[in-house]
């Protein structure tokens, strides 16, 4: 129940109990969305990994199915790890995933539906040819760092291509394999891409984005209207980092655009907690959707006590920003059907040092959008040129540290007496020749329980506050706050575990802890209904 389980989410995907990590094999098949996930059927910690499985008509409500893929042959007897689905030309799906063999080597396997006319794809059969890709003395692949095959794509030469993450010493890379029949795979001489000093690349993802439109595209598009995104989940820092670049379809080489930073720090999908993510092309709505795992920030013993760990972020639509230099993400529109009891506050002046409550919403389960207008920049604090690390800047200047233009934003999951709150806010600085916007998510006061990781998160947002208003949206769901700044130019997800600000005792406020006034031009909040999840 809600009172004994105050941290269970109401509209974020999670299994009824136990451990969940990476999203696997997302796809749409016969009009149904499928999500598989790394799952421990035996407990709330990582281990005994199988593929949990659920389907949905709307990406909001989910029906559970039996475990789809589990250890059953030598090539996966010690674990069925992450992988991806590919829709073949005949419309049927195929799954490539990593198996752990009896020697504890990582190898790549194929599974196909037993009965493709079943839209639920309940039963999966494994290829008798498994493993299809494996480390050998000849190929010199590191057998403990060779995993997580992507969705495959068909090249201009008619052959299938797929990439698998790895490392050679400190160099992270994506091995490329080619096949004529999806069963017999040959490793290419060159990886698709590699980058020095980035460590192991887990859960690589590689996909095209339209250069001039937010419409999503599938893997096999050709031409100059598309850029490519290569994402790696960096095992060293547990961050999902990406670059934007070009893909040479003939040489099968990816080249990041000039000026793009490889590895960490670099561009991230999310500057909070968000890992092992994966996209897929939603052919029903022509969009590219992103799934990502939000791990707990609580202690292992608290996870065991509550009996579960891990949720999935609300699926996000991903597209290329007009600048061509970064992605933009926005929660799927479908989630808005859970919105009830809208509260719209009138446009108002928010004086320095003020707090306004947003009344009438269930603040522990809400969706809120707020937009700020700043008119006077004369008092903006000067950005010290040494302040290049936004997360560090956020930790030095948390929500309770007064500034001039900011901090202003939201106090979410707040207790009545403010013993607990999570603040999500902006600060505006005067940079060299423009204003710089910092967005932070400050968990330091989120809970009276000292056993949680309360690291502050932050990033610079590429918006010009002189010409644009500053928008912030937060999806609040008991123990998660997913925040989107600048209409999705910047995302920060946080896991928090208040002890007082739970269920009906949670409150929501807008605040301005700067000395200068700002104007709230829009504040809309909704209570969120509970979704049917598993
Ligand atoms: N999780 C899986 C691996 C992957 C890692 C194992 C990323 O396949 O590299 O559960 O979180």
TrEMBL record:
Transmembrane segments: none annotated. The keyword Ubl conjugation does not apply. Residues 334-527 form the Glycosyl hydrolase family 32 C-terminal domain. It catalyses: Hydrolysis of terminal non-reducing beta-D-fructofuranoside residues in beta-D-fructofuranosides. Coiled coil: none annotated. Gene3D superfamilies: Exo-inulinase, domain 1, Glycosyl hydrolase domain, family 43. One of its GO terms (molecular function) is beta-fructofuranosidase activity. Residues 12-331 form the Glycosyl hydrolase family 32 N-terminal domain. Keywords: Glycosidase, Hydrolase, Signal, Vacuole. InterPro entries: ConA-like_dom_sf, Fructan_Metab_Enzymes, Glyco_hydro_32, Glyco_hydro_32_AS, Glyco_hydro_32_C, Glyco_hydro_32_N, Glyco_hydro_beta-prop_sf. GO terms for biological process: carbohydrate metabolic process. Pfam families: Glyco_hydro_32C, Glyco_hydro_32N. PANTHER family: BETA-FRUCTOFURANOSIDASE, INSOLUBLE ISOENZYME CWINV1-RELATED. Belongs to the glycosyl hydrolase 32 family. This is Cell wall invertase. It comes from Manihot esculenta (Cassava).
């Amino acid at each position: 129940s809600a009172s004994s389980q105050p941290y269970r989410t109401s509209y974020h995907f999670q299994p009824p109990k136990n451990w969940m990590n990476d999203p696997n094999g997302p796809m749409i098949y016969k009009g149904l969305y499928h999500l598989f996930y790394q799952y421990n059927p035996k407990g709330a910690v990582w281990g005994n990994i199988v593929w949990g499985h659920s389907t949905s008509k709307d990406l909001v409500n989910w029906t559970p199915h039996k475990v789809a893929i589990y250890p059953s042959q030598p090539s996966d007897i010690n674990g069925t790890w992450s992988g991806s689905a590919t829709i073949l030309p005949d419309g049927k799906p195929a799954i490539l995933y990593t198996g752990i063999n009896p020697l504890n080597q990582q190898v790549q396997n194929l599974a196909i539906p037993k009965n493709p006319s079943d839209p639920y794809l309940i039963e999966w059969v494994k290829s008798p040819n498994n493993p299809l890709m494996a480390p050998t003395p000849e190929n010199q692949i590191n057998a403990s760092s060779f995993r997580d095959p992507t969705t495959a794509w068909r090249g201009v030469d008619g052959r299938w291509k797929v990439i698998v993450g790895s490392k050679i010493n400190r160099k992270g890379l994506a091995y490329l394999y080619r096949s004529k029949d999806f069963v017999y795979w040959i490793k290419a001489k060159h990886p698709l891409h590699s980058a020095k000093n980035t460590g192991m690349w887990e859960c690589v993802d590689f996909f095209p984005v339209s250069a001039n439109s937010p419409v999503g595209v599938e893997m096999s598009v050709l031409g100059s209207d598309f850029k490519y995104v290569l994402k790696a989940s960096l095992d060293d820092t547990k961050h999902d980092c990406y670059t934007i670049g070009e893909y040479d379809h003939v040489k099968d080489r990816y080249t990041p655009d000039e000026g793009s930073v490889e590895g960490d720090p670099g561009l991230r999908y999310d500057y909070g907690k968000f890992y092992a993510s994966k996209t897929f092309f939603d052919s029903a709505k022509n969009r590219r959707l992103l799934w990502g795992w939000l791990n707990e920030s609580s202690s292992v013993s608290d996870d065991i006590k509550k009996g579960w760990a891990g949720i999935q972020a609300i699926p996000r639509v991903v597209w290329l920003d007009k600048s061509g230099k970064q992605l933009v993400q926005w929660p799927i529109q479908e989630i808005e059907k859970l919105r009830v009891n809208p509260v719209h506050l009138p446009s108002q002046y928010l004086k320095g040092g003020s707090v306004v409550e947003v009344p009438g919403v269930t603040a522990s389960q809400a969706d809120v959008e707020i937009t700020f207008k700043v008119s006077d920049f004369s008092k903006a604090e000067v950005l010290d040129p040494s302040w290049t690390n936004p997360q560090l800047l956020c930790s030095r200047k948390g929500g309770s540290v007064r500034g001039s233009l900011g901090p202003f934003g939201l106090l979410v999951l707040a207790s009545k007496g403010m013993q607990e709150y999570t603040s999500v806010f902006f600060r505006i600085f005067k940079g060299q020749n423009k204003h710089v916007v910092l967005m932070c998510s400050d968990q330091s006061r989120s809970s009276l329980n000292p056993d949680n990781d309360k690291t502050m998160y932050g990033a610079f947002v590429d918006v010009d506050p002189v010409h644009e208003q500053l928008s912030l949206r937060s999806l609040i769901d008991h123990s998660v706050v997913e925040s989107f700044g600048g209409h999705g130019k910047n995302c920060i997800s946080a896991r928090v575990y208040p002890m007082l600000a739970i269920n009906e005792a949670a409150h929501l406020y807008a605040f301005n802890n700067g000395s200068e006034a700002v104007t709230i031009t829009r504040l809309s909040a909704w209570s969120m209904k509970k979704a049917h999840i598993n």
